[in-house]
Amino acid sequence: MAPSVTHVSGTVTGNVEVRFTDSGVAVCRFRLTQTPTQWDAAARQWRDGAPIRYVCTAWRDLARNATESLTDGVSVLVTGRITEIRDDAVYLSVDDLGISLRQRIAYTETSLPSPAAAAPVSPTASIAAPAAAQAAGAGTGSPTAGQAGGPPAWWEQRRASGWHRPAARTPADVGP
Fold this sequence. Notes:
The protein is of the alpha+beta class. It is built from five helices and seven strands; from the N terminus they run βββββαββαααα.
């Protein structure tokens, strides 16, 4: 009988360890803690239950991506198969993995427009201007809103407002 697939939501505890097999296949292992909550009707509030500990193993591209993306304290969603239960931990073979957006914003390579898309364009601007702007911002640490390589200014405005109000759209926002 094939092991059943399970879905776990928890917090990465500790560092992600990556190793490579003799044939060059990446395998990573990380620990995950899930703290279930239970409604206490008498006290009319949620109470934390006993934490459940998981040892997760991922292979190949998923292992490489997990190693680059996960750090201690990140909340994740894991889909995998239980392979073993021992030493007060559940061992999972991970099929898929995602960052939980409940408590943070995740930035991806494609989630924001490129810095050049946020820069104003004038007919007299030279083609070298965006490259010069990027070079001027290099070496200043992580880019902030409005800087080359950082999120556009509207991103910080929406983030500061709590993301719950739709932004007013103007014809300039829509483009040609």
